[in-house]
From TrEMBL:
Belongs to the DNA mismatch repair MutL/HexB family. The lineage of its organism: Bacteria, Pseudomonadati, Pseudomonadota, Gammaproteobacteria, Oceanospirillales. Keywords: DNA damage, DNA repair, Endonuclease, Hydrolase, Nuclease. The chain holds residues 1 to 343 of 624 of the full protein. Residues 333-343 have a biased composition (Basic and acidic residues). GO terms for molecular function: ATP binding; ATP hydrolysis activity; ATP-dependent DNA damage sensor activity; endonuclease activity; mismatched DNA binding. GO terms for cellular component: mismatch repair complex. GO terms for biological process: mismatch repair. It comes from Halovibrio salipaludis. Residues 213-331 form the DNA mismatch repair protein S5 domain. The keyword Phosphoprotein does not apply. This is DNA mismatch repair protein MutL. This protein is involved in the repair of mismatches in DNA. It is required for dam-dependent methyl-directed DNA mismatch repair. May act as a 'molecular matchmaker', a protein that promotes the formation of a stable complex between two or more DNA-binding proteins in an ATP-dependent manner without itself being part of a final effector complex. The gene is mutL.
Length: 343
């Protein structure tokens, strides 16, 4: 039997990366979450070759103080929670302190930042098996830029799983769509191979918000959407649901947010499907952009490392609330004679 040894930091981080860093889109997801947690009002994303060659995310958030720069890259280091109590009522998107450490173990990552109120900026990288950090001065406006080059350059087995540039970029764009739908107050831009792909100004009025949804989900969706806002039993559901006149052949226009966090959940999916059951043919899929607000104490977000899943304390209550709210909203509008069926 071989002797038991502690893994070198890079290897330990590469193993952890297996759970959260699947492809370029997962990198942008984590970096955008960090920008949002830092209170950014603008997030700029630049990618090359679908993100495999370069991902650069720049924000105008709080930045990181000089003495904290090395910690930002080390595993299990986070500024977002300090105790189990914090975790149980967590409101930030991040809290695991793993993303930057994981990403920098499988790519060439440079973190550059200038903290609010400071006059100088700094950059840091983690090198070698020990992931020793080196901090050096760097010009940067207030905020943070994370540059990730050559994803999986040192993990060939993972690199093989990358799909074509187009497929990877589609995933990345889909992720950005989800995040842009989760924060109307933040401006987002996306560039691919030097070409501007998306530019969204912060949306403050209801009209702005509708415009953002239209530019992300298509104006067809918005034209056929019913706006909803229901509150009961300590739950609130807001957003837009497509009338049966706009259904899809695939479940590709379904966005659901719990306390601002994009999630996929079977219970939610089931409630929505039931609500549409009488008005939609079986093979068709509803389209929706919905926001559920729940007391953070009644929902567990620490179910999976990617945080796409949540667990509700009272799942039945949530299910019934969703079903009833949507069913009622859809029942109020009679199926129209306009039977265009895009998608
Ligand atoms: P987590 O988000 O779970 O805390 P990360 O590895 O993603 O873990 O980030 C580690 C820490 O680095 C964060 O807790 C935060 O303090 C800091 N950080 C990362 N990205 C940014 C950013 N864009 N702006 C400000 N601080 C950041
Ligand atoms: Mg994070």
């Amino acid at each position: 039997m071989a002797a038991i040894q502690t893994l070198p930091p890079r290897l330990a981080n590469q193993i952890a990366a297996g759970e959260v860093v699947e492809r370029p889109a997962s990198v942008t997801k984590e970096l955008i979450e960090n920008a949002l947690d830092a209170g950014a009002s603008r997030v700029e994303v630049e990618v090359e070759q679908g993100g495999a060659r370069l991902i650069r995310v720049r924000d105008d958030g709080d930045g990181i103080a000089h003495d904290q720069m090395p910690l930002a890259l080390s595993r299990h280091a986070t500024s977002k929670i300090h105790s189990l109590d914090d975790l149980e009522a967590v409101s930030s998107l991040g809290f695991r302190g793993e993303a930057l450490a994981s990403i920098s173990s499988v790519a060439r990552l440079t973190l550059t930042s200038r903290a609010r109120g400071e006059t100088e900026g700094w950059c840091v990288e983690a090198e070698g098996q020990d992931m020793q950090t080196r901090v050096s001065p760097a010009a940067h406006p207030q905020g943070t830029t994370v540059e990730v080059r050559d994803l999986f350059f040192n993990t060939p087995a993972r690199r093989k799983f990358l799909r074509t540039e187009k497929t990877e970029f589609n995933h990345l764009e889909e992720n950005l769509r989800r995040q842009a739908l989760s924060r109307f107050d933040v401006g987002f831009t996306l560039q691919h191979n030097g070409r501007a792909v998306q530019s969204l100004r912060p949306a403050t009025t209801e009209r702005d918000r509708q415009q953002r949804v239209a530019s992300l989900c298509g104006s067809q969706f918005m034209e056929h959407a019913l706006s909803i806002d229901v509150e009961a039993s300590g739950l609130r559901l807001q957003g837009w649901v497509a009338l049966p006149t706009f259904s899809r052949s695939q479940a590709d226009l379904q966005y659901f947010f719990v306390n601002g966090r994009p999630i996929r959940d079977r219970l939610v999916a089931h409630a929505v499907r039931q609500a549409y059951r009488d008005v939609l043919y079986n093979q068709r899929h509803p389209a929706f952009v919905l926001y559920l607000e729940v007391d953070p104490a009644n929902v567990d977000v620490n179910v999976h490392p990617t945080k796409h899943e949540v667990r509700f304390r009272d799942g039945r209550l949530v299910h019934d609330f969703l079903f009833r709210s949507l069913h009622r909203a859809l029942a109020e509008v009679r199926p129209g004679d306009d039977s265009t069926e895009p998608g």
